[in-house]
Design brief:
Helix content: 25-40%
Order of helices and strands: EHEHEEEHEHEHEHEHEEEHEHEEHH
Radius of gyration: 22 Å
CATH topology of the largest domain: Rossmann fold
Number of domains: 2
Shape: elongated
Largest sheet: 7 strands, mixed
Bound molecules: 6-O-phosphono-beta-D-fructofuranose
Structural class: alpha/beta
CATH architecture of the largest domain: 3-Layer(aba) Sandwich
CATH class of the largest domain: Alpha Beta
Number of helices: 11
Strand content: 15-25%
Length: 361
């Protein structure tokens, strides 16, 4: 049997994952003559031994396709895995030893793990058990410290910007305040970047607890100048001063908490204080769907090819990253230790304030 590598996509999907899979497959086969094993549904497929051979033919036409052809799961934590018992109940077990056995059976040169902080932290634990792991950072949230950009982020921003432009015309016609709730979890990258690019008037971020009186004051100022509508971007992780996160469902050992409701909460706060007409749009998973933009296709391709080179070089325990436009290999801890958050006084936030965007504090 010739040499081979494995690849899996874990956590929430995003546009650009297929570009990574395609590039890794083409590079492994074309440059190194290695076979490629695709593992279905993240670490779940490693535990359940659900694999597919990836070839030039199976990855053709993948560059522009959204989602991941390998499937993904954000419940597949191999260290706290929900096992279904014969009586129908579910019990949480550490199945990492079985995953390690399956990895050994596969006899891979290396395993490329494409994921966000959760998937990377599982990768790190497997690394400690001797697995040959290389990471590719992806998440629309762009919250991984290791890299300037993660695969999927720019496409999500494009989706939000298009939504803001569409909402602007209807907001203007009806003289309304339009609130758009966007994803990003505990980081405000999507909200702030899209707010800047889409001409939002108020942008509320997880990193800056907002003062509702200040937000309302911004509307009064605009309306005082004869403008009769406003566009507000609120990150799902934004909260008012002294308030808490808007959570739809609590997390546990097998899943993260589910955020949601920040937009409606803000609408209620505005309605309670003003006469303005307010509408809320929650963009939700639209931000994760569809075809990747050119940036994510390119970044996914560069990361996918680089990850294979990293396996060839034995750079295990590292993730492919981009820093000031250049590809670099960064230790996996850099991708999991702490979230990359928007600096409330950094250049992006300062630019937003300079152009008159209200950040709520
Ligand atoms: O981490 C990516 C992300 O899309 C977050 O922005 C969002 O909070 C979360 O995943 C949604 O997760 P799910 O797909 O489980 O609803």
């Amino acid at each position: 049997m010739g040499k081979r590598i494995g690849i899996l996509t874990g956590g929430g999907d995003c546009p650009g994952l297929n570009a990574v899979i395609r590039a890794a497959t083409l590079t492994a086969r074309g440059s190194y003559g290695w076979d490629v094993v695709g593992i279905h549904n993240g670490f779940e497929g490693l535990y359940e031994e659900e694999y597919v051979d990836l070839t030039e033919a199976s990855v053709s036409q993948l560059l522009s396709r959204g989602g991941t052809v390998l499937g993904s799961s954000n419940r597949a934590n191999p260290f706290a895995y929900p096992l279904r018992l014969p009586d129908g109940r579910t019990e949480i077990h550490d199945v990492s030893a079985k995953c390690m056995k399956n990895l050994a059976k596969l006899g891979l040169e290396g395993l490329i793990v494409v994921g966000g902080d959760g998937t990377m932290s599982f990768g790190q634990k497997f690394l400690a058990q001797g697995a040959r792991i290389v990471g590719v950072p992806k998440t629309i949230d762009n919250d991984l410290e290791a890299t300037d950009y993660t695969v999927g982020f720019q496409t999500a921003v494009e989706v939000v910007v298009e939504a803001l432009e569409r909402l602007q015309t209807t907001a203007e016609s009806h003289e309304r305040i339009m609130i758009v709730e966007v994803m990003g979890r505990y980081a405000g990258w999507i909200a702030l970047t899209a707010g800047l690019a889409g001409g939002a008037h108020v942008v509320l971020l997880p990193e800056i607890d907002y003062d509702i009186d200040r937000v309302v004051e911004a509307f009064h100022r605009r309306h005082g100048r004869g403008v009769s509508y406003s566009i507000v971007v609120v990150a799902e992780g934004a909260k008012p001063k002294g308030g808490t996160l808007a959570v739809l469902a609590a997390g546990d050992a097998t899943k993260q908490e589910k955020l949601g409701g920040a937009g409606q909460r803000l609408a209620d706060q505005i309605i309670a204080r003003t006469e303005y007409e307010v509408r809320t749009t929650v963009l939700g998973h639209i931000q994760r769907g569809g075809s990747p933009c050119a940036f994510d296709r390119e970044l996914g391709t560069r990361f996918g090819a680089m990850a294979v080179d990293m396996v060839a070089l034995g750079q295990f325990g590292h993730v492919a990253a981009i820093e000031s436009g250049k590809l670099v290999a960064k230790p996996i801890e850099k991708a999991v230790k702490k979230l990359k958050l928007v600096d409330p006084n950094g250049e992006l936030a300062r630019t937003a304030r300079s152009v008159g965007i209200e950040l709520g504090a």
